[in-house]
Structures are given as C-alpha cells and as structure tokens.
C-alpha cells in the first residue's frame, strides 16, 4: 500500500510541477491556474480510486473526485453554476463516496463468504 501511495504522490507532484513550469514559460496563460486548479483535486481523487486498497479508501477517492468536479463546475461556471447555486453538489459528492464505500463493503463481504464456503 505504501508503494502505491508513493507512486500516486509522485505522479501528482510531477503533474503539478509541469503545470507550474508551463505557466512560468508562458506556454499556459496565468489564468490557467485560476481556472484549472480544481482539476488537480479531481486528479487526486482519481489517484485515490486507483490506489484504493479497502472500501473506505475507495469511498474517499470517489468523494474527492466528486468534490473536484463540483469545484470545476463552480469555477468554470458550467451550466450557469457558481459558488452560490452549486453547493448542493458537494453533498452529492459526499453521498456518492458513502454509497461507493457501502457497495465495496457489500462486495467484499460476499467475496469473503464465498471464499469461506458459506455462499454458493
């Protein structure tokens, strides 16, 4: 688990460094950081999903991805969304994470029962 976590953080730090380099050398405009920073949160969530080793970690990754998408929608004003009218999406993100954690626990429980020979 520790090696996967290091891999995830390594990829994240490389991406962050590349983003800052691109802005520094003028290949990306300065406003890119103001509008695209939220996708770093999405990236962290996706890495959390990819490196999840248990239902709680998977649920946390889904929640973080959802929060990142909400932040992206509010910053970019997708479909007329802004900070004032999009806050319920944060609750949706948290709910998706909780449901994902629950579903992963159910699946893990079934798998354990099957391995123990309790379920056909």
Question: If you had to describe this structure to a student in words, what would you say it looks like?
Answer:
This protein is an all-alpha fold. It has 6 helices and no strands. It is flat. The model has no long low-confidence stretch (mean pLDDT 86).
**Main beta sheet, described?**
none
Count of DSSP-assigned helices: 6
Q: What would the average pLDDT be, to the nearest integer?
A: 86
Task: Enumerate the spans where pLDDT stays under 50 for 5 or more consecutive residues.
Answer: none
Helix/strand/pairing category: mainly alpha
Shape estimate: flat
Distance between the termini: 31 Å
**Structure summary, number of beta strands:** 0
Q: What is the H-and-E element order?
A: HHHHHH
Summarize the structure.
This protein is mainly α and 120 residues long. The chain is 81% helix and 0% strand. The two termini are 31 Å apart.
List the helices and strands and how they pair.
Layout: H1 2-24, H2 31-36, H3 38-50, H4 55-76, H5 83-86, H6 88-116
Pick out its properties.
single chain, 120 residues, mainly alpha, 6 helices, flat
